[in-house]
Specification:
The chain is α/β, with parallel strands linked by helices. The chain has 19 helices and nine strands. The protein has three domains: 90 residues, Orthogonal Bundle (434 Repressor (Amino-terminal Domain)), CATH 1.10.260; 116 residues, Helicase, Ruva Protein, domain 3, CATH 1.10.8.60; 176 residues, P-loop containing nucleotide triphosphate hydrolases (Rossmann fold, 3-Layer(aba) Sandwich).
Length: 392
């Protein structure tokens, strides 16, 4: 951050006023002041002289003018980071894409954009759910498993929309009045190793099944009696016209032993009908556990379908953003211009030596756009442009 920011404050001048004087965008001034990024299309020496002229015209002394383009001292900038970052921190910034933590749409941003709720906040209803062909395929696959039969693993990165699909499935079954009992074991603090947290065991799944299917029965204390009780309860429920779907979130943290036992759970039958359908939901580590090379779970691998939630494609990014904005009562063109959309796609694509890894997941996109809206408001920019995205 340059001393120029504090100098403008001392002179009671806003960045947008300087931008108008220089005939450049507010984002250009913000990038220069906050990130020392000089515009490529303007001669640096000429721009520097014009800024110095602006400062002198508004009463800046020689010291302020001569030091305006120096780095602001950490104490004056109220910086939380150390003045001299470690080499590791610098390397991390260069190697990893800049994903943002949870962003909040500020009140002044809502007023500036005339928007009354965060377009990327938690879904309020099923109509808020964005569906493209990839999501629609997984959504229908989950529904068919729950409604009829199957063994499915839904895998995706954090923020890809896995939990949204789970909530959508349960809401859809309830709305239809479908005769399907959804069984969800308690997975809070679940880890695959006991020393890290609570490992989900087959006995815990049996307890969850009995509690859901036969809530008036008390689970047996003897393990063998408990499993017999579970099997009997499933049979009775099926004969009463119900189907059963077991949904396990955070399945990437499930112990291998429990994962293997799910194959045996799938073997519980009434005649030719499987009594329990299973949907596993987890991050990409689950794909490693379900690898064909993992001999421990080969019986599960041969029976389970794996569906991966892919990131939003760059070609559909504009469609996704337009949908989210529309749900908040805004047109996309009133918030972000085409250059901003392109900049988001580039920002959330990590270019490696041989491949490009897309991070265009709903959560990452939402955090970046909200941060850009806040920045645009702070610098007086009416729209999010590529320069604003670069300044986030």
């Amino acid at each position: 951050m340059l001393n120029l920011k504090a100098t403008l404050t001392d002179l009671d001048q806003r960045q947008i006023t300087l931008a108008k004087h220089l005939n450049v965008s507010s984002a250009t001034v913000s990038l220069l002041i906050n990130h020392r990024q000089w515009p490529r299309t303007i001669d640096q020496d000429d721009l520097r002289k014009r800024i110095e002229g602006f400062l002198k015209e508004h009463g800046a002394d020689d010291v302020a003018v001569n030091t305006a383009f120096e780095e602001m001292e950490p104490e004056r900038a109220n910086a939380k980071a150390p003045a001299n970052p470690t080499k590791k921190a610098i390397d991390d910034q260069e190697c990893e894409p800049m994903l943002l933590r949870k962003q909040v749409l500020l009140p002044e941003t809502k007023r500036a954009f005339a928007i009354f709720r965060d377009p990327f906040d938690d879904l309020q209803c099923v109509e808020d759910m964005y569906v493209n062909p990839d999501i629609r395929y997984i959504r229908e696959s989950m529904y068919q498993v729950a409604r009829h039969d199957g063994f499915l693993a839904v895998v995706g990165e954090s923020g890809a929309g896995k939990s949204t699909l789970r909530r959508d499935l349960i809401n859809r079954l309830n709305a239809e009045g479908a005769p399907v009992l959804v069984i969800e074991p308690y997975v809070l603090a679940m880890e695959d190793k006991g020393e890290k947290g609570k490992a989900l065991r087959t006995s815990h799944i049996a307890d969850a099944i009995v509690d859901t299917v036969a809530p008036l029965e008390r689970p047996k204390s003897n393990p063998e009696a408990r499993f017999r009780q579970m099997h009997r309860a499933l049979k009775n429920s099926y004969e009463s016209g119900f189907r059963h779907v077991l949904i396990i979130e955070e399945a990437h943290s499930m112990p291998i032993s429990t994962l293997k036992h799910l194959k045996r759970l799938r073997e519980l039958e009434s005649g030719f009908t499987k009594l329990v359908s299973i949907i596993l939901i987890g991050q990409t580590e689950l794909m490693v556990k379900l690898s064909e090379r993992n001999a421990e779970v080969r019986e599960v691998v041969q029976r389970i379908e794996v569906a991966e939630l892919l990131p939003v494609s760059a070609a559909r990014l504009g469609e996704f953003l337009a949908f989210r904005m529309d749900r908040a009562g805004k047109k996309l063109a009133e918030v972000i211009d085409p250059s901003g959309v392109q900049a988001i796609a580039e920002r959330l694509t990590n270019a490696g030596r041989d491949t490009k890894r897309s991070l265009l997941y709903p959560l990452a996109i939402g955090n970046l756009v909200v941060a850009a809206m806040n920045l645009a408001t702070s610098i007086g920019a009416p729209l999010i442009t590529d320069e604003v995205i670069k300044g986030v």
